Amino acid sequence: MSVHQTIRDVTDRITKRSEKTRRIYLDRMDAAAKQGVHRTALSCGNLAHGFAACGAGDKAKLSDEITPNIGIITAYNDMLSAHAPYKDYPDQIKAAAEQAGAVAQVASGVPAMCDGVTQGQPGMDLSLFSRDVIALAAGVGLSHNMFDAAMFLGICDKIVPGLVIAALSFGHIPAVFVPAGPMPSGLPNDEKARIRQLYAEGKVGRDELLKAESESYHSPGTCTFYGTANTNQMLMEIMGLQLPGSSFVNPGTPMRDALTKEATRRALAITALGNEFTPASRVVDEKAIVNGMIGLHSTGGSTNHTIHLIAMAAAAGIQINWQDMSDLSDVAPLLTRVYPNGMADVNHFHAAGGMGFLIDQLLNAGLAHDDVKTIWGSGLHVYAQEPKLIDDRIQMEPAAKESGNENVLTPCSKPFAKNGGLKLLKGNLGQSVIKISAVKPEHRVVEAPAKVFHSQNELNDAFKAGELNEDVVAVVRFSGPKAIGMPELHKLTPPLSVLQNRGIKVALITDGRMSGASGKVPAAIHMTPEAVDGGPIAKIKDGDIIRLDAENGVLEVLVDQAEFDARPVATQDLSESHYGLGRELFTGMRQLVGAADNGASALGELIK
């Protein structure tokens, strides 16, 4: 089936907009690829250092020009449930490479922080910047120029975007992403949400809250709600960077181990030393990025990717923006109901048909580009499959043609919503994005007086003091990337949800983030320009009437424009937020970081 006209139009304008930067990028990658087996460019002394720690057999292999060598970039640590399973992956990859007559080396480790641990804590102020640190750390590992392909072990929020940026900076070699999978299902999401809300109202204590949280996040593996971590896995699959059907297989299972070994074999098959050379620079093109955005919308994925996808695309010389995302959202039907826009989790999604069913539906409806390169072969249709473990080897079979549970995963003919629920909001306050897939239609238009706060803690204090008992648009400013690193503001979700449940009209405007779990309260997030840059959000006063219309993409303060323009810009002493728990180390990044609508990157323009 031909691709939907809107998708073609958006792809064409991205291609035209990116023509110069994409050409520069590809020329650089092609020139690097022509250098051949990269370790042959090293002097004997360089090469000797590169394999000094290897056994005699691997040293002999790495001394020639025909044995492929995989560089492993790992985000393993044993504090994060999602990354703890990676402990044994390097040994599995090395064993699989040895069986194939090749070599694999751990090139570097990268940091991996957990937003679930740092949520509402000072450490969260480092979270967004950790993406760029991860890209830099991976770049250091790959800079040894020893490798014919790279395998990336990462799952969570900023980790995969950082690894993608690094992979594209080394886009002259193949990049294969290897997931670890979600933990098994624990406490149902509706029960978890109920306990959180009761705690916010003071009706249950910390002991009961901790018990519920522990029953939700209970074992190695990714958290099972559909936040940024699991959105990352969806993106890597629909963009062709990891094996079909590999995103949501639980850790510690025979299938999971077999997929890791198969990923190794595939990485070796697509190096320049074979007949299927598939460098990352040719996998991630304009059509793959559009497929990623369609996947984001059709699954109701994390709003963090309205930032990350821009930065990831830029690393490949591709320029996308919020208008592209909003226009694609208008034609991408919502096909999943996974928490927070449903009560199911990603295990239920996977069991119902998962990525293979989803991709098959999108292709058959003309809602995704099939003519792309992937690490598994040509065409996105090779991802409309699911892996089976037969005689200890992975075999791909066609994906299910019917959903196993249409309450969780539905066909394009019966979508949960006609659009993906991501909207671009514009008006006299600048621009922001809002995710409405979990927001009921009656809550999508709010017109109410503003109440201004300079931190999420201020808002929570006001809630506890009973000061938010009338219709309100809560404005939380000085939370942007330049101000304090743009932390996620999930402390706001429970109190605002309580207010909404009480029948109060409520909305949020912030230059901070709310990610994939922003929930049922309308939240205009990533407001640009941010307050510390003198954005209009810094001129709002308590009592100003603000209109948030998520249906029509409008966000404005209903104040005489001349009066509003003449107002002084509010300032805030943020010095206490710039020190402690490592925040002083990121002073330079706060000074260098760009705006949220340009990817909030501290790395500058990767392609000029």
TrEMBL record:
Its cofactor is [4Fe-4S] cluster. It catalyses: 6-phospho-D-gluconate = 2-dehydro-3-deoxy-6-phospho-D-gluconate + H2O. Its EC number is 4.2.1.12. It is an enzyme of class 4 (lyase). Pfam families: ILV_EDD_C, ILVD_EDD_N. The keyword Iron applies. Residues 408-600 form the Dihydroxy-acid/6-phosphogluconate dehydratase C-terminal domain. GO terms for cellular component: cytosol. Pathway: Carbohydrate metabolism; Entner-Doudoroff pathway. InterPro entries: 6-phosphgluc_deHydtase, Dihydro-acid_dehy_C, DiOHA_6PGluconate_deHydtase_CS, ILV_EDD_C, ILV_EDD_N, IlvD/EDD_N. [4Fe-4S] cluster binds at C156, C223. One of its GO terms (biological process) is D-gluconate metabolic process. Residues 68-380 form the Dihydroxy-acid/6-phosphogluconate dehydratase N-terminal domain. Keywords: 4Fe-4S, Carbohydrate metabolism, Gluconate utilization, Iron, Iron-sulfur, Lyase, Metal-binding. Binds 1 [4Fe-4S] cluster. GO terms for molecular function: 4 iron, 4 sulfur cluster binding; metal ion binding; phosphogluconate dehydratase activity. PANTHER family: D-XYLONATE DEHYDRATASE, PHOSPHOGLUCONATE DEHYDRATASE. Belongs to the IlvD/Edd family. Catalyzes the dehydration of 6-phospho-D-gluconate to 2-dehydro-3-deoxy-6-phospho-D-gluconate. This is Phosphogluconate dehydratase.
